[in-house]
């Protein structure tokens, strides 16, 4: 069994075939999916939880679908929308048992969005709520290309925030869709994070990323799709979906000299351990 540790199941791109898409995931051996609750902004944070409940009810009634879990958070670009009402909404969502993570949250300096200071402030506010609710976090971090020790260095800004506001909680989390180098991976591991790789691991020009993936301790690995984006190389340019996490796992298993079933077992165990879940999800 594989777990897709990060998919945007509430994307409008699934509006016409969400149930069929989830059935394809189950058929491919995906036993669980973490449905990311950022929507297009804070007003849509709840959509992931609603989808989780809708399809888990169908699964309980006998439909062959993956077990769904939810997250909730405010994406970095929407940090300027954070106010007391948004934070109260986030807190309420994290109190729900199906909402197992806060995220994706973090810093993004690559695209135009909220000012960097607002992103850092919003991240800290969300870390405080996640800590109070004892929820691990899913971090998004992307800096400007080539930026080091400057205004575009999102990783350089992220680690001091996590050191001060997150490391003491011991809750850990996921570095989602990891795309940085070994130094960033090592610092993430030191902070207790799992490293999750998405479809970009399969791209021909991603050898540097594959080199990093080959060095991550097995007990710290996860796989994801980041669906509907970042479809694996064989489907590049098409809509991604959880069933395709199998292809990322296949590349990762090759890097580690393991069978895909072994990588599936390891990453599933890691997911359950991080979120303190019982490994009772069947295909």
Q: SSE order in H/E notation?
A: EHEHEHEHEHEHEHEHH
Q: Please indicate the percent range of residues in DSSP E strands (runs of 2 or more).
A: 15-25%
Specify the CATH homologous superfamily: Metal-dependent hydrolases
Structural class: alpha/beta
How is the CATH topology named?
TIM Barrel
| Largest β-sheet summary | 8 strands, parallel
Return the CATH class: Alpha Beta
The residue ranges in which pLDDT falls below 50 over 5 or more consecutive positions are none
CATH architecture descriptor name: Alpha-Beta Barrel
Name the helicity range.
25-40%
Number of strands: 8
- Count of all domains: 1
A few lines on this structure:
By secondary structure, the protein is of the alpha/beta class.
Please describe what this structure looks like.
The protein has 283 residues and is α/β, with parallel strands linked by helices. It has one domain (2-275): Metal-dependent hydrolases (TIM Barrel), CATH 3.20.20.140. Helices cover 39% and strands 16% of the residues. It has an 8-stranded parallel sheet. α2 (47-60) links the parallel β2 (30-35) and β3 (67-72). α3 runs parallel beside α4, α4 runs parallel beside α5 (154-165) and α8 packs across α9 (260-275). The chain is globular and about 45 Å long. 48% of the residues are buried. The mean pLDDT is 96.
């Amino acid at each position: 069994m594989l777990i897709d540790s990060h998919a945007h199941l509430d994307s409008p791109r699934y509006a016409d075939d969400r149930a069929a898409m989830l059935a394809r995931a189950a058929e491919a051996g995906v036993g669980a999916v973490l449905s990311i609750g950022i929507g297009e902004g804070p007003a849509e944070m709840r959509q992931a939880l609603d989808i989780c409940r809708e399809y888990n009810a169908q699964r309980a009634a006998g439909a062959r679908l993956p077990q769904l879990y939810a997250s909730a958070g405010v994406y970095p670009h929407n940090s300027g929308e954070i106010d007391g009402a948004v934070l109260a909404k986030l807190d309420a969502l994290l109190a729900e048992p199906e909402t197992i993570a806060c995220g994706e949250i973090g810093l993004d300096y690559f695209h135009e969005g909220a000012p960097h200071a607002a992103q850092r402030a919003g991240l800290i506010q969300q870390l405080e709520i996640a800590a109070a609710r004892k929820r691990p976090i899913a971090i998004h971090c992307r800096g400007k290309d080539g930026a080091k020790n400057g205004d575009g260095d999102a990783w350089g800004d992220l680690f001091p925030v996590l050191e001060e506001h997150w490391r003491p909680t011991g809750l850990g989390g996921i570095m989602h869709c990891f795309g940085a180098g070994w130094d960033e991976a090592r610092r993430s591991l030191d902070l207790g994070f799992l490293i999750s790789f998405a479809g970009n691991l399969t791209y021909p020009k991603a050898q540097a990323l594959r080199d990093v993936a080959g060095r991550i301790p097995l007990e710290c690995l996860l796989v994801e799709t980041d669906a509907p984006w970042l479809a694996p190389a064989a489907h590049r340019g098409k809509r991604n979906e959880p069933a395709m996490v199998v292809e990322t796992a296949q590349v990762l298993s090759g890097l580690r000299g393991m069978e895909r079933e072994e990588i599936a077992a390891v990453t599933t165990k890691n997911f359950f351990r991080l979120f303190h879940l019982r490994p009772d999800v069947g295909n």
